[in-house]
Amino acid sequence: MRPSTAPTSTSHGIRISGVSKVFPGLPRPAVDDVTLDVAPGEFMTFLGPSGSGKTTTLSMIAGFTPLTAGSICVDGEDISRLKPHKRDLGVVFQQYALFPHLTVTKNVAFPLQQRAVPRADVEARVRAALELVGLADFADRLPRQLSGGQQQRVALARAVVYQPRALLMDEPLGALDKKLRDQLRREIARMHRELGMTFLFVTHDQEEALTLSDRIAVFNNGRVEQVGTPNELYERPSTLFVAQFLGESNVFADDGAEVVVVRPERLELHAEPGAVPDGCRHRKAVITDIVYVGNHHRIGLRFADGTEGSVMRLAGTALPAAPGESVVASWSPRHQAAVPRPAATWGV
Ligand SMILES: Nc1ncnc2c1ncn2[C@@H]1O[C@H](COP(=O)(O)OP(=O)(O)OP(=O)(O)O)[C@@H](O)[C@H]1O
Ligand SMILES: [Mg+2]
């Protein structure tokens, strides 16, 4: 893995070792023995379903939640027991949490004043931070005179203005509508490139994770199931959970303790088994539905064993068959990922 930005003096590594969090009264740990290395300058995303422990992990790194076990180091220094403001980490949450009675400039200047930065420097650094987030012309406004997206930009500017060792963000785009979210997502990617700072980003939105991250840590039930580049997670998922959480999957029972996962764009459809290319594997299926999704068609399949799946075809290419018709779906073994068969409850 290579960070998208060369490490600079503003790049710091974060090591999370055996970190757990037990909340009294919960049947199992909210975070359960998580170990993770974030490289200097890396854009790392915590991705996972609701309740999987993403926020709790980020909050332990930020210092708002004490650890039950384990340690967190920045550049080798154990920060696990430091107060949040001593950790030198910038934090942005889903809710903007700006000071409502302070102007944009004063909001962004606040962390510098707390750190007793000389007045002349404050002005220059606030201006640079506002330019970074495209808000130089909004310096004198109050938060309520800004849109949600603009308020979140102020929060970003305030979190990076004192040049922290890393920027931690918990669903920073969650409260915005889709268009603003896409726009601010591109801004965050650009900020990462320009600052060369280590970014830790939390989301349950797979598209956000895939497009922003150098690497993604997939959380499930308080544990990290897999850490990898977007491509590794998509092409080589190590568990069925990861395969099904990221993108669509066809899941086929295989001999023994494994099932195989094949992505919809890797399946070919044929009228009969004789048409399957040599060396390819195949399954019989019935087409259940065909949905036009903008630039492609999603062809729904029901396989002979009753499991559901799908094939993706770019719009403009001829459709192989109609709903209700029988087909044979084939794939090359090169394009399958074998993962352990999950325990009991699961029916292939
Ligand atoms: N202060 C708390 N006291 C008790 N339990 C908590 C506390 N904070 C979180 N939990 C529990 O810990 C588990 C993990 O919560 P967490 O907020 O880390 O999940 P998440 O992955 O961020 O979910 P979401 O995507 O919904 O934000 C959940 O079961 C949650 O109910
Ligand atoms: Mg959360």
TrEMBL record:
<dbReference type="Pfam" id="PF00005">
    <property type="entry name" value="ABC_tran"/>
</dbReference>
<dbReference type="GO" id="GO:0140359">
    <property type="term" value="F:ABC-type transporter activity"/>
</dbReference>
<dbReference type="InterPro" id="IPR003439">
    <property type="entry name" value="ABC_transporter-like_ATP-bd"/>
</dbReference>
<dbReference type="InterPro" id="IPR008995">
    <property type="entry name" value="Mo/tungstate-bd_C_term_dom"/>
</dbReference>
<feature type="domain" description="ABC transporter">
    <location>
        <begin position="14"/>
        <end position="246"/>
    </location>
</feature>
<keyword id="KW-0067">ATP-binding</keyword>
<keyword id="KW-0813">Transport</keyword>
<dbReference type="Pfam" id="PF08402">
    <property type="entry name" value="TOBE_2"/>
</dbReference>
<protein>
    <submittedName>
        <fullName>Putative spermidine/putrescine transport system ATP-binding protein</fullName>
    </submittedName>
</protein>
<dbReference type="InterPro" id="IPR027417">
    <property type="entry name" value="P-loop_NTPase"/>
</dbReference>
<dbReference type="InterPro" id="IPR013611">
    <property type="entry name" value="Transp-assoc_OB_typ2"/>
</dbReference>
<dbReference type="InterPro" id="IPR017871">
    <property type="entry name" value="ABC_transporter-like_CS"/>
</dbReference>
<dbReference type="InterPro" id="IPR003593">
    <property type="entry name" value="AAA+_ATPase"/>
</dbReference>
<dbReference type="GO" id="GO:0016887">
    <property type="term" value="F:ATP hydrolysis activity"/>
</dbReference>
<keyword id="KW-0547">Nucleotide-binding</keyword>
<dbReference type="GO" id="GO:0005524">
    <property type="term" value="F:ATP binding"/>
</dbReference>
<dbReference type="GO" id="GO:0043190">
    <property type="term" value="C:ATP-binding cassette (ABC) transporter complex"/>
</dbReference>
<dbReference type="InterPro" id="IPR050093">
    <property type="entry name" value="ABC_SmlMolc_Importer"/>
</dbReference>
